[in-house]
Write a structure and sequence with these properties.
Structural class: alpha/beta
Oligomer: single chain
CATH superfamily: Phosphoglycerate mutase-like
Order of helices and strands: EHEHEHHEHEE
Strand content: 15-25%
Helix content: 25-40%
Radius of gyration: 15 Å
CATH topology: Rossmann fold
Length: 179
């Protein structure tokens, strides 16, 4: 089973953290969308219900077979809508502690991964998912654990995992339209 996860196009959130806020996407780069669409081989398409993911799917010429609420981005709680430069300094946390950290009123990466991973594990055929950076990292965490938090996931980038039985392998991470 091949899993292709495409992060949504750039959020139109004025440089602020979007998280669970339902902000639109900038789908204006037709050439980038065409390059990424040519890489996709969907047997089924699943998308986060977020507006930015639905818009990205449409711009790619994809019609989701279903919208999956479990694929929403991490709930950043008090950090929602914050300028990233104003985030609190958490110090030199080990990755496993960072994965457990919960912003006030939000969820940790581990919390988010706990709702995303069962959806991915249940897939039975090749799938394209249009979702968020957090969704991509949750998928990567199946293979590398909390080290998934160290991966860059650019807007409109493609990450590909392969599953054979219960074993997952990472084929590609953060493949951008210009690559």
């Amino acid at each position: 089973m091949r899993l292709m996860i495409l992060r949504h196009a750039p959020s139109l959130a004025d440089g602020l953290l979007a998280g669970r806020r339902d902000v639109p996407a900038d789908c204006g780069d037709a050439a980038a969308f065409a390059r990424q669409a040519a890489r996709l081989r969907p047997a089924q398409v699943i998308a986060s219900p977020a507006l930015r993911c639905r818009q990205t799917a449409t711009a790619l010429g994809l019609v989701p077979d279903r919208l999956e609420p479990a694929l929403w981005e991490q709930d950043l709680g008090a950090w929602e809508g914050m300028d990233p430069s104003l985030l609190p300094d958490l110090g030199p946390l080990p990755l496993d502690a960072l994965a457990r950290h919960r912003p006030d009123g939000g969820e940790s990466f581990d919390d988010m991964a706990a709702r995303v991973i069962p959806v991915l594990q249940a897939l039975q055929r090749d799938t394209v998912i249009v979702a968020h950076a957090g969704t991509v990292r949750a998928a990567l965490s199946i293979v590398v654990g909390p080290a998934a938090l160290s991966f860059a996931v650019a807007p409109l980038s493609l990450t590909v995992l392969q599953r054979a039985g219960a074993d997952w392998a990472v084929q590609t991470v953060n493949l951008c339209a210009g690559d």
